[in-house]
Design a protein that fits this description.
alpha+beta, 5 strands, 7 helices, 210 residues, elongated
Protein backbone atom coordinates (compact mmCIF):
# COMPACT_ATOMS: atom_id res chain seq x y z
CA UNK A 1 0.00 0.00 0.00
CA UNK A 2 2.74 2.43 0.92
CA UNK A 3 4.53 1.68 -2.31
CA UNK A 4 1.37 2.45 -4.31
CA UNK A 5 0.73 5.68 -2.44
CA UNK A 6 4.31 6.79 -2.82
CA UNK A 7 3.91 6.34 -6.56
CA UNK A 8 0.87 8.64 -6.50
CA UNK A 9 -1.58 5.85 -7.38
CA UNK A 10 -5.12 5.60 -5.91
CA UNK A 11 -5.88 3.14 -3.14
CA UNK A 12 -9.08 1.23 -2.54
CA UNK A 13 -11.18 1.57 0.61
CA UNK A 14 -9.38 -1.30 2.28
CA UNK A 15 -6.06 0.29 1.50
CA UNK A 16 -5.13 -1.75 -1.55
CA UNK A 17 -4.45 -0.22 -4.94
CA UNK A 18 -7.29 -0.62 -7.46
CA UNK A 19 -5.74 -1.19 -10.89
CA UNK A 20 -9.19 -1.41 -12.47
CA UNK A 21 -10.02 2.13 -11.30
CA UNK A 22 -6.67 3.38 -12.47
CA UNK A 23 -7.02 1.88 -15.95
CA UNK A 24 -10.62 3.13 -16.20
CA UNK A 25 -9.53 6.63 -15.25
CA UNK A 26 -6.72 6.67 -17.80
CA UNK A 27 -9.10 5.39 -20.49
CA UNK A 28 -11.62 8.14 -19.78
CA UNK A 29 -8.91 10.78 -19.97
CA UNK A 30 -7.64 9.50 -23.31
CA UNK A 31 -11.18 9.27 -24.72
CA UNK A 32 -11.95 12.81 -23.54
CA UNK A 33 -8.81 14.13 -25.20
CA UNK A 34 -9.74 12.36 -28.43
CA UNK A 35 -13.21 13.94 -28.44
CA UNK A 36 -11.92 17.45 -27.73
CA UNK A 37 -9.02 17.39 -30.19
CA UNK A 38 -11.11 18.02 -33.36
CA UNK A 39 -12.58 21.13 -31.72
CA UNK A 40 -9.14 22.33 -30.69
CA UNK A 41 -7.87 21.66 -34.21
CA UNK A 42 -10.76 23.64 -35.72
CA UNK A 43 -10.17 26.61 -33.41
CA UNK A 44 -6.45 26.50 -34.11
CA UNK A 45 -7.08 26.58 -37.87
CA UNK A 46 -9.42 29.57 -37.49
CA UNK A 47 -6.85 31.46 -35.42
CA UNK A 48 -4.10 30.63 -37.92
CA UNK A 49 -6.26 31.75 -40.86
CA UNK A 50 -7.15 35.03 -39.15
CA UNK A 51 -3.48 35.65 -38.34
CA UNK A 52 -2.63 35.02 -42.00
CA UNK A 53 -5.41 37.37 -43.14
CA UNK A 54 -4.14 40.12 -40.82
CA UNK A 55 -0.61 39.59 -42.13
CA UNK A 56 -1.94 40.04 -45.67
CA UNK A 57 -3.48 43.37 -44.67
CA UNK A 58 -7.07 42.23 -44.28
CA UNK A 59 -9.55 43.61 -41.76
CA UNK A 60 -12.57 42.02 -40.13
CA UNK A 61 -15.91 43.21 -41.49
CA UNK A 62 -19.30 42.49 -39.90
CA UNK A 63 -22.65 43.47 -41.39
CA UNK A 64 -26.16 42.23 -42.11
CA UNK A 65 -26.48 40.44 -45.45
CA UNK A 66 -29.94 39.44 -46.64
CA UNK A 67 -31.20 39.36 -43.06
CA UNK A 68 -28.27 37.46 -41.54
CA UNK A 69 -25.24 38.76 -39.66
CA UNK A 70 -21.99 37.85 -41.41
CA UNK A 71 -18.30 38.40 -40.68
CA UNK A 72 -15.46 38.20 -43.17
CA UNK A 73 -11.85 39.34 -43.55
CA UNK A 74 -11.35 41.77 -46.45
CA UNK A 75 -8.67 43.97 -47.92
CA UNK A 76 -9.27 47.74 -47.80
CA UNK A 77 -9.37 47.90 -51.62
CA UNK A 78 -12.10 45.25 -52.01
CA UNK A 79 -15.35 46.58 -53.42
CA UNK A 80 -18.73 45.49 -52.14
CA UNK A 81 -19.58 43.97 -55.54
CA UNK A 82 -16.44 41.84 -55.52
CA UNK A 83 -17.05 40.74 -51.93
CA UNK A 84 -20.64 39.71 -52.67
CA UNK A 85 -19.74 37.78 -55.80
CA UNK A 86 -16.49 36.12 -54.74
CA UNK A 87 -16.77 35.63 -50.98
CA UNK A 88 -20.51 35.01 -50.69
CA UNK A 89 -21.20 33.64 -54.19
CA UNK A 90 -24.10 36.06 -54.66
CA UNK A 91 -23.63 36.35 -58.40
CA UNK A 92 -27.00 37.98 -59.03
CA UNK A 93 -25.12 41.23 -58.41
CA UNK A 94 -23.60 41.87 -61.85
CA UNK A 95 -20.30 43.59 -62.52
CA UNK A 96 -20.76 45.17 -65.93
CA UNK A 97 -19.09 48.54 -66.45
CA UNK A 98 -17.38 48.52 -63.02
CA UNK A 99 -17.40 52.32 -63.20
CA UNK A 100 -20.70 53.23 -61.54
CA UNK A 101 -22.37 54.02 -64.86
CA UNK A 102 -24.86 51.24 -65.67
CA UNK A 103 -26.47 50.08 -62.42
CA UNK A 104 -25.98 46.36 -63.09
CA UNK A 105 -24.39 45.99 -59.66
CA UNK A 106 -27.19 47.76 -57.75
CA UNK A 107 -27.92 46.51 -54.24
CA UNK A 108 -29.89 48.05 -51.40
CA UNK A 109 -27.90 49.49 -48.49
CA UNK A 110 -29.95 50.53 -45.45
CA UNK A 111 -32.97 50.97 -47.74
CA UNK A 112 -31.17 52.96 -50.43
CA UNK A 113 -30.10 51.75 -53.89
CA UNK A 114 -26.31 51.96 -54.36
CA UNK A 115 -23.75 50.91 -56.97
CA UNK A 116 -21.83 48.14 -55.21
CA UNK A 117 -18.94 48.33 -57.70
CA UNK A 118 -18.15 51.85 -56.45
CA UNK A 119 -18.47 51.15 -52.74
CA UNK A 120 -15.68 49.76 -50.60
CA UNK A 121 -16.74 46.68 -48.68
CA UNK A 122 -15.42 48.10 -45.40
CA UNK A 123 -17.89 50.99 -45.71
CA UNK A 124 -20.82 48.65 -44.99
CA UNK A 125 -19.58 47.83 -41.48
CA UNK A 126 -22.61 47.47 -39.19
CA UNK A 127 -25.04 48.22 -42.02
CA UNK A 128 -27.67 46.14 -43.83
CA UNK A 129 -27.18 44.96 -47.40
CA UNK A 130 -29.87 43.32 -49.52
CA UNK A 131 -29.12 41.65 -52.86
CA UNK A 132 -31.47 40.19 -55.47
CA UNK A 133 -31.12 36.82 -53.71
CA UNK A 134 -32.37 38.39 -50.49
CA UNK A 135 -35.76 39.23 -52.00
CA UNK A 136 -36.79 35.58 -52.05
CA UNK A 137 -38.95 34.47 -49.13
CA UNK A 138 -38.83 30.69 -48.60
CA UNK A 139 -38.31 30.27 -52.33
CA UNK A 140 -41.19 32.63 -53.18
CA UNK A 141 -40.47 35.54 -55.51
CA UNK A 142 -40.89 39.07 -54.18
CA UNK A 143 -43.77 41.13 -55.62
CA UNK A 144 -41.29 43.28 -57.57
CA UNK A 145 -39.74 40.20 -59.17
CA UNK A 146 -43.19 38.89 -60.08
CA UNK A 147 -44.17 42.22 -61.64
CA UNK A 148 -41.07 42.23 -63.87
CA UNK A 149 -42.04 38.77 -65.12
CA UNK A 150 -45.71 39.61 -65.66
CA UNK A 151 -44.99 42.90 -67.45
CA UNK A 152 -42.04 41.49 -69.41
CA UNK A 153 -39.67 44.06 -67.94
CA UNK A 154 -36.63 42.28 -69.31
CA UNK A 155 -35.12 40.98 -72.52
CA UNK A 156 -31.61 39.51 -72.21
CA UNK A 157 -32.01 39.69 -68.42
CA UNK A 158 -28.45 40.75 -67.64
CA UNK A 159 -29.40 44.15 -66.19
CA UNK A 160 -32.57 42.81 -64.56
CA UNK A 161 -31.22 42.16 -61.03
CA UNK A 162 -29.99 45.74 -60.82
CA UNK A 163 -33.25 47.06 -62.26
CA UNK A 164 -35.28 45.08 -59.72
CA UNK A 165 -33.15 46.25 -56.79
CA UNK A 166 -33.49 49.87 -57.93
CA UNK A 167 -37.26 49.40 -58.22
CA UNK A 168 -37.40 47.73 -54.80
CA UNK A 169 -35.59 50.67 -53.18
CA UNK A 170 -37.78 53.18 -55.04
CA UNK A 171 -40.98 51.53 -53.82
CA UNK A 172 -39.67 51.40 -50.26
CA UNK A 173 -39.28 55.16 -50.38
CA UNK A 174 -42.32 55.90 -52.53
CA UNK A 175 -44.87 53.05 -52.41
CA UNK A 176 -47.20 54.59 -54.98
CA UNK A 177 -45.18 56.55 -57.57
CA UNK A 178 -46.60 58.25 -60.64
CA UNK A 179 -45.23 57.20 -64.02
CA UNK A 180 -42.96 60.25 -64.07
CA UNK A 181 -41.69 59.47 -60.57
CA UNK A 182 -41.05 55.87 -61.58
CA UNK A 183 -39.05 56.97 -64.63
CA UNK A 184 -37.00 59.40 -62.54
CA UNK A 185 -36.47 56.81 -59.80
CA UNK A 186 -35.04 54.32 -62.30
CA UNK A 187 -32.48 56.78 -63.71
CA UNK A 188 -28.99 55.33 -63.64
CA UNK A 189 -30.00 51.77 -64.51
CA UNK A 190 -29.17 51.13 -68.15
CA UNK A 191 -30.95 48.51 -70.25
CA UNK A 192 -28.96 47.77 -73.39
CA UNK A 193 -32.01 46.04 -74.88
CA UNK A 194 -34.06 49.26 -74.42
CA UNK A 195 -36.90 47.59 -72.51
CA UNK A 196 -37.57 50.84 -70.65
CA UNK A 197 -41.36 51.10 -71.22
CA UNK A 198 -41.90 47.61 -69.82
CA UNK A 199 -39.50 48.27 -66.95
CA UNK A 200 -41.54 51.31 -65.91
CA UNK A 201 -44.74 49.29 -66.31
CA UNK A 202 -43.22 46.66 -64.03
CA UNK A 203 -42.46 49.22 -61.34
CA UNK A 204 -46.01 50.56 -61.45
CA UNK A 205 -47.47 47.04 -61.40
CA UNK A 206 -45.33 46.16 -58.38
CA UNK A 207 -46.64 49.24 -56.59
CA UNK A 208 -50.22 48.09 -57.18
CA UNK A 209 -49.62 44.46 -56.24
CA UNK A 210 -47.95 45.02 -52.87
Amino acid sequence: MKKDQDAGLPASKNGSFSRRKFIKGVGSTVAGAYLISPQVESITKKISKKAKDIKEGKYELSFMLNGKKVSVMVKPSTTLAKLLREDFQLTGTKMVCNQGECGGCTVVLNGKAVYSCQMLALDVEGKEVTTIEGLLNDGELNHVQKAFIEKDGLQCGFCTPGQIMAAYALLKKNPNPTREEAIKGMYGNICRCSAYPNIVDSVLAAAQSK
